[in-house]
Design brief:
about 160 residues; mainly alpha; globular; Four Helix Bundle (Hemerythrin (Met), subunit A)
């Protein structure tokens, strides 16, 4: 697994959070169905935290997120936790049991890292829409919230 790319995607969210003021971070937006950039950031962070928490027992449950309101209300808290997530993500691959409301599924740590990263990109795309609504799209680059395969395709088309 290319953890350099994983860290790059986490860093892109960290960079945005560093640039955002708390007022924009907690602003309820129509384009996010009344939710906030902070709530989407918390969701991303807590998926990674669930994976980290479940690594030692080899049992992961994303349904057991804590929904820590301080992450969604305070950019400093979110930034600091993302730094911890980034610094703890590199681990050996191993079998993992995913516990979900759909039943238990055998998977692996690397597969779940990929799930968390793809989920992160999806929520970053939603955050991009919110930033456009706020008139703050200049806070992100053209890769924020765009899947690597889409970026590769765009580069090939425009090459």
């Amino acid at each position: 697994m290319d953890f350099k790319e994983v860290k790059k995607i986490i860093d892109s969210l960290k960079d945005l959070i560093l640039k955002l003021d708390n007022q924009d971070y907690v602003y309820r937006q129509d384009s996010l169905s009344g939710s906030t950039i902070g709530e989407h950031s918390r969701h991303i962070i807590e998926l990674f935290q669930c994976l980290e928490k479940g690594y030692s027992s080899a049992k992961v449950s994303y349904d057991d997120r804590k929904r820590n309101s301080s992450i969604q209300e305070n950019t400093k808290v979110a930034f600091d936790i993302l730094e911890v997530v980034k610094n703890s993500i590199i681990k050996e691959d191993k079998p993992v049991l995913l516990k979900s409301s759909f039943g238990d599924i055998q998977t692996s740590y690397y597969r779940e890292v990929l799930y968390c990263v793809e989920h992160c990109i999806h929520h970053q795309a939603l955050i991009r829409v919110a930033l456009i609504e706020l008139g703050k799209e200049d806070l992100i680059d053209n890769q924020f919230g765009v899947a690597p395969s889409t970026l590769k395709h765009r580069n090939n088309v425009h090459a």
